[in-house]
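User: Just a sanity check before I run the rest of the batch. Below are the structure tokens for the first item. I only need the designed sequence back.
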């Protein structure tokens, strides 16, 4: 199945909202997740774990620890999906 960046962003935003308790409207692609009130590294890791299960991928540790925005998440998920399809 092919996923567009927009599809990935929608899914990632839904997951981020569910895991952080932040309204989807506040979760713009360029917002620094770690700088938002109530978002800590545990919440980010839970979000990443759910994304990995959703897409049946495994993100590289160095990518995960470098994530700060939803745009970053979309980029690494998109890359992982392309690598898995190759």
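Assistant: Here's the designed sequence for the first item:
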């Amino acid at each position: 199945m092919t996923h567009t960046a927009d599809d990935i962003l929608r899914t990632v935003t839904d997951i981020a909202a569910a895991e952080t308790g932040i309204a989807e409207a506040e979760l713009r692609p360029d917002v620094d997740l770690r700088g938002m009130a109530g978002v800590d590294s545990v919440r980010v890791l839970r979000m990443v774990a759910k994304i990995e299960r959703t897409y049946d991928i495994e993100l590289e540790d160095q990518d995960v620890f470098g994530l700060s925005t939803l745009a970053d998440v979309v980029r690494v998920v998109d890359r992982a999906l392309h690598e898995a399809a190759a």
